[in-house]
Design a protein that fits this description.
Distance between the termini: 84 Å
Strand order of the largest sheet: 1-9-8-2-5-3-4
Shape: elongated
Strand content: 15-25%
Length: 636
């Protein structure tokens, strides 16, 4: 016994009011000339342009991608205004299109290439019309009368949320013989039309997160694979056409229907066919780029920005020349010791998708270091004379197009406001960041639970990627391959910490350790130059002073470092140097050097970890750590 069809929920009061308002609008449009509707649409378009700065930014972003990434405000602003005015006019006229009389249609709409379009749809063949959002695309539902010989003439569409208005729009679209297929009803009826033959329209340039990721105007984005699927189901009787409408005057449009998409023999892959469709639509829209509907995010970014598609499909996408990258900004923490822990995070981002580009925003003292990390494309500083956003809009980084993603790990409101000027589509970070408390400041964020077993701080950043963004790399790259000096050798000590005097070890212990090690080299950062040179002279050791970006020249896998906690052992670990680290103020489980081959020592007391720069106890906790413990197996 068949189940009864589920009852539709009753329309709400708000939906009923919207329905009656829409009926009144349609009644007014029915008696208004289309040129008057177009003029009204243009006037409203100017209001939309003046009152919607957010929409202006969206249109500017899209036009930079579709026209030229190097477009600056002087040329971009007039294009944005003209596009928003024309788009609003087209949207107004699309409401009028379904209400036009035949006389109005004949006066306002010219169909080009109808014969070519019709001929390919005869004899059981199916013409799949790939339609971009450009001009007044509602025209294509009204020109059914141009193809009386074709049995089936249909189009895909998306239902409206208001069932009452949806019914009116559906009746308007189907009144003249156009069959409408909703994606909510599945693809069975559409596939049947593809097999039996006819003319079918598909709006093919919408973003879809579940689609095939191939370039559109040289930037990879999610594209519906439906035209490719229908073409393959036609089994040799399918034809792909690029069909579009263009505005030619006030209340006048052309429907261009003769752009055949040539499919090479043997080309059946979804990504390959979809890329052919995209290229054809690009040519159509490029003829009058301002006719495009650029007031929505065509190149979106979502929480899970890593497309789940086969490597072969990525190869198709990346084979296109001159691609614009998927641009990711990472704003570093203020503390250098914390920022260095993001190296595995950056490597995971760079490997997340083939078109990823990682850019770093950091304090000036960190810039030279990040410029030496190969997965970082551009860097900008947060404390220079020029704001970070201005640095990232200089010609060299500007040519790669708009920014897509921002990971905000700094807690500076000033820097956050500055980076928002760049218009990243998505902002992510930790819940503990005070910036996350602002409503919708972070589109997604990750909470760190502190009652669970401690894990390394670098794993917090990786957990953010895995649990909020679907990026869980199989390999964790701690040491940077080839970063250190493979020819360097020897033993080094680093008695000075960037964390403060709380992380120190008595001088007499260092003297005893050096006696056991022979004659190690004292390695220090420029900020400790005077103290390091004095201690090296006292102990009779050679002294090397190196900036953070130059540590790699002196350390490598064949070296050994004995140090107190701080920045230097973290960088040494990136060079592949085994480290023995005395940790006082921080917890080893959280802040030990990343990677393998390292040893940490600490003397646990009730005040440990204190996270202080200066110890307030009579005897520091490190004083009880002996030289024998530091040497460990090395002293045997």
């Amino acid at each position: 016994m068949s189940q009864p069809a589920p009852q539709q929920p009753k329309p709400t009061a708000a939906q009923r009011m919207a329905h009656w308002a829409y009926r009144g609008l349609c009644a007014a449009l029915r008696i208004t000339d289309v040129r008057a509707v177009a003029a009204c649409g243009r006037a409203v378009g100017y209001l939309v342009w003046m009152c919607s700065p957010a929409r202006r930014r969206i249109v500017a972003r899209n036009l930079r991608i579709a026209v030229d990434p190097m477009l600056r405000q002087d040329k971009l602003a007039p294009m944005v205004r003209r596009n928003m005015v024309r788009t609003t006019m087209n949207l107004f006229c699309s409401l009028k299109t379904g209400l036009m009389t035949d006389r109005e249609m004949h006066r306002s709409i010219r169909v080009l290439g109808a014969d070519t379009f019709r001929e390919h749809g005869m004899g059981g063949h199916c013409v799949i019309s790939c339609i971009p959002h450009a001009g007044n695309w509602e025209i294509l539902a009204r020109i059914r009368s141009q193809f009386p010989e074709v049995e089936h003439y249909g189009s895909m569409y998306r239902r409206m949320s208001n069932p009452l208005i949806e019914d009116m729009v559906y009746q308007s679209r189907t009144r003249y013989g156009c069959e409408m297929f909703s994606k909510e009803d599945g693809l069975r009826a559409v596939l049947r039309l593809a097999r039996t033959g006819g003319l079918l329209g598909v709006l093919s340039d919408q973003f879809t997160n579940e689609g095939v990721y191939v370039p559109y105007f040289r930037k990879v984005t999610g594209v519906t694979p439906l035209p490719a699927l229908l073409y393959n189901r036609c089994k040799g009787k399918g034809h792909l056409f690029a069909v579009y409408t263009r505005n030619t005057g006030l209340g006048k449009w052309d429907a261009v229907m003769d752009r055949i998409i040539e499919v090479p023999e043997g080309c059946t892959g979804m990504a390959q066919l979809t890329l052919l469709v995209n290229k054809a639509l690009e040519k159509c829209q490029s003829e009058n780029i301002l006719d495009g509907f650029w007031m929505h995010h065509r190149w979106k970014a979502t929480a899970e920005f890593i497309p789940k598609q086969e490597p072969a499909d990525w190869q198709v996408a990346m084979a296109e020349p001159g691609l614009l990258p998927f641009r990711i900004l990472v704003c570093m923490p203020q503390e250098f010791e914390e920022a260095v822990l993001l190296v595995p995070f950056l490597h995971a981002l760079a490997a997340s998708r083939p078109d990823a580009q990682v850019n770093v925003v950091c304090p000036g003292e960190q810039q030279a270091f990040w410029q030496g990390v190969d997965c970082v494309a551009y860097t900008a500083t947060t404390d220079g004379a020029k704001p970070a956003s201005a640095q990232l809009e200089e010609d060299e980084p500007y040519k790669d197009g708009p920014y897509d993603y921002l990971f905000m790990f700094s807690e500076s409101k000033r820097v956050f406001r500055d980076l928002q000027r760049l218009g990243p589509l998505f902002t992510s970070g930790f819940t503990e960041n005070p910036l996350a408390r602002k409503k919708r400041a972070f589109r997604t964020h990750f909470t760190q639970w502190h009652f669970s077993a401690p894990r390394h701080r670098a794993e917090d950043y990786m957990a953010l990627l895995a649990k909020r963004h679907g990026c869980a790399p199989q390999e964790r790259t701690h040491a940077i391959p080839g970063y250190g000096n493979a020819e360097a050798a020897g033993t080094f000590i680093s008695p000075f910490s960037t964390l403060g005097t709380a992380d120190s070890w008595p001088v007499e212990n260092w003297a005893e350790l050096c006696s056991a090690l022979g004659t190690p080299t004292l390695l220090a950062l420029p900020q400790h130059r005077d103290a390091a040179q004095a201690l090296a002279g006292e102990l009779g050791l050679p002294c090397t002073i190196a900036a953070p970006q130059d540590i790699r020249k002196h350390l490598g896998p064949n070296c050994r470092l004995y140090a107190v906690d701080g920045l230097l052992p973290q960088i040494a670990a990136l060079c592949g140097t085994p480290c023995t680290v005395i940790m006082a103020s921080r917890l080893p489980d959280r802040y030990a050097p990343m990677g393998t081959g390292h040893r940490t020592l600490n003397n646990h007391r009730p005040c440990h970890p204190c996270y202080r720069t200066a110890c307030d106890q009579d005897s520091p906790c490190t004083a009880e750590i002996s030289v024998a413990e530091v040497l460990g197996e090395d002293g045997v």
